[in-house]
């Protein structure tokens, strides 16, 4: 089965991509001191082993099967396309594939160091190979092919085979750069920097990162959502859930050795400063008004982010090469508390269509990228902390004041978040009753109900979903569908993540003190959730009432595409009373009307043709490196570019709450049809 990354709601502070050209390469870095595990690694490993055996939903023992899975996952996380390690390396490592369980139970992760240091050696060798190949004349007229399916890829048996593969890889890289209008010396320098920069970043890997990679390879062999989070990852997770941090308010990514600005957060410190712009490169960072300017070229993005973040009111100085320039400028910026509003609920009223009196319908759209709450504030007993439910409640009150005719809740890029918030938010749209049922490893079933009578919005409701709608999104969409409270529109099914994870703070597990040290956390699957009707969403997802064609519907990003995903099952239905807001004959009419419009739409016709080309390209295991054939295929459709468009949010500039395009216009038409079919029955009474 093809292993893919689950798509979840996230911020682009830790994204790595590629751009920027230089004329000289930096000296190679000093080798990182990753010689042996630390004492803290043993403590963390032992407590993770203990918790996995005691708490994981599957009750699967840490045995030879998990060991073999863990080794395979660890190797694939380092070398997914099998271009660095050799077949001999793998044969050597696999001699211990049934011993990892005993290693973990003893708290010994020295095997991870052995593998990773071999990986660094292989990268050094392959980068030397790249340097040699970039000095040769490569033939782009030959009918050569490169394996592009990671499941089809194999490890090179000898140096000759490795050299051949790297020659093809470099040819592919150069063809891609040519497609991006970069050729000749510029392309060669860019490619050389890319691989040298990768080597340098890998040599900067620290013990926390290696521990996270290795333990996660083992824990995710139970199920794909059980992971070890290092101290820095735990800090980032808490920032994500609370939607605020102290910093400058700029989204960053890594591009061929440089930290590049991808977005300036509105009303943040950088926005108020006014000089830092999208596409600027940050090359040095200094603390305070006179602190040393530290070179951050080729530094790991996470380390650069840590240097830029800091207490509100303090100064950070950035050495910046503005886009299109070669001169470095120093920008002193005073840090502030940044509100990450891009992940918060946002509302907009759209007027469309025409009523019998000639006026337009008012449609309230809510874009909800995640289910968030300030967990730290909640634990401290505060009552005014930031949460999804309260933000959406305010939006709905505003919609009612403007007399909207229907509400559209957009969950298409919502990867989940807080289970509590999913339950509370659903309660804004139903009167009362069960929202989700949860079963634990002892087969105990508990129903989580909306206990608050009444609804914040009782009128027509449309829920937009995609394959990226996961977890908490599926709880809400499933409950809305079971209660027949509204219609679900979008991809054939949502992501299919029907398991519940708990975050176990390892510092608190190890040290029974009021403020334990940060040893990271274990995000562990302890429960499975079920809809009010008793169906799990695991692997199946929530099926749309009205399906609209899309590229995402055919991408391998669902739960069922992940290795070791838990299986679908059912439990008895909970006692709930459905409304009369959705009826079978109503759905039939809505589908027929939508299909008729789409059949007459040139845009949807073009989309269907692109989907077919995408599926054909995706099914290919190899790619031609003949220049004419390569660009002829890309002229029809670039499958990689299509996936990138779907996977990466628009990082430049502000996104509208609801972009007006042919797809979203069809959503508005469906919503107006739904309002008309409901006629006077616009209140979701029992």
Topology:
Blueprint: E1 15-17, H1 39-55, H2 64-78, H3 87-94, H4 100-106, H5 110-133, E2 145-147, H6 159-179, H7 184-203, H8 207-219, E3 227-229, H9 231-242, E4 244-247, E5 250-255, E6 258-264, H10 269-273, E7 281-287, E8 294-295, H11 301-308, E9 315-321, E10 329-334, E11 336-339, E12 346-352, E13 361-367, H12 375-379, H13 388-401, E14 406-410, H14 419-426, E15 433-440, E16 445-450, E17 461-465, H15 472-482, E18 487-490, E19 499-505, H16 506-510, E20 521-530, E21 546-547, H17 584-599, H18 602-619, E22 622-624, H19 627-636, H20 639-647, H21 662-678
Parallel strand pairs: 1-5, 13-14, 14-17, 17-18, 18-21
Antiparallel strand pairs: 2-22, 3-20, 4-11, 5-6, 6-7, 7-8, 7-9, 9-10, 12-13, 15-16, 15-20, 19-20
